Design the sequence.
């Protein structure tokens, strides 16, 4: 089956098996192309008796909430989230994640780490057979304060021995660096295989200028992977 259908099947299954419309009042909605189907499915739960609020993880996420006629709330109003759904760029065997492919990692981590339950939805390409960095070759996304990017690039190389690192450029969409929904830059840092993502996250987080890393440690509780044969694999 087509990739988009595999993603949809996984997302629908994740919502149907984990979202409880009676008890879950605050729902985090992530960013990217797979979570589109989460928002679609949540929209099908809305009726005159439901009152759950959805918390966005960036502008695209806000669009998903609005276009699916879901109630939009802010993380400031609802700092405690009952359940959050999001995509991932890679998932390792202990459910550690690389996220940030869509440059929304800061708000994604703010929402997912504020959630009692955090569920990942992805297609089977995102599941790593071993460690992070096995399939995802674009490096660890890192959100940095714009004025610090030269310093952070140097520290990544000199202090953390990363193989290569660069500021994410807008390409044909925008001259110059990608600017995140929080007015920051993204640096993608290639560390090759990441045997200890927790240690790497901590080391990167200490660098001056780093706002947040795309290494989501001990955050996800379950992951739903859509396979090309239409089946769904669940990791927990
Ligand atoms: O940027 C992100 O973290 C997104 O969630 C991304 O990792 C997943 O994007 P996809 O669902 O389009 O593959």
Sequence:
């Amino acid at each position: 089956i087509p990739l988009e259908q595999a993603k949809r099947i996984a997302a629908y299954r994740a919502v149907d098996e984990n979202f409880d419309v009676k008890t879950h009042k605050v729902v985090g909605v992530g960013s990217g192309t797979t979570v589109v189907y989460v928002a679609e499915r949540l929209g099908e739960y809305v009726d005159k008796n439901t009152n759950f609020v959805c918390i966005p993880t960036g502008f695209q996420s806000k669009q998903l909430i609005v276009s699916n006629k879901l109630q939009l709330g802010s993380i400031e109003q609802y700092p405690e989230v009952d359940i959050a759904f999001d995509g991932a760029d890679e998932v390792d065997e202990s459910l550690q994640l690389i996220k940030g492919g869509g440059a929304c990692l800061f708000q994604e981590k703010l929402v997912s780490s504020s959630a009692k339950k955090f569920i990942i939805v992805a297609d089977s390409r995102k599941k790593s057979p071993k460690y992070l960095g096995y399939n995802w070759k674009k490096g660890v996304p890192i959100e940095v304060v714009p004025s610090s990017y030269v310093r952070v690039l140097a520290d990544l190389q000199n202090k953390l021995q990363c193989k290569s690192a660069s500021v994410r450029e807008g390409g044909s969409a925008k001259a110059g660096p990608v600017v995140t929904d929080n007015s920051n830059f993204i640096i993608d840092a290639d560390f090759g295989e990441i045997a200890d993502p927790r240690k790497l996250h901590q080391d990167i987080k200490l660098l001056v200028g780093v706002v947040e890393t795309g290494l989501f440690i001990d955050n996800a509780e379950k992951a739903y992977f859509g396979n090309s044969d239409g089946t769904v694999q669940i990791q927990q």
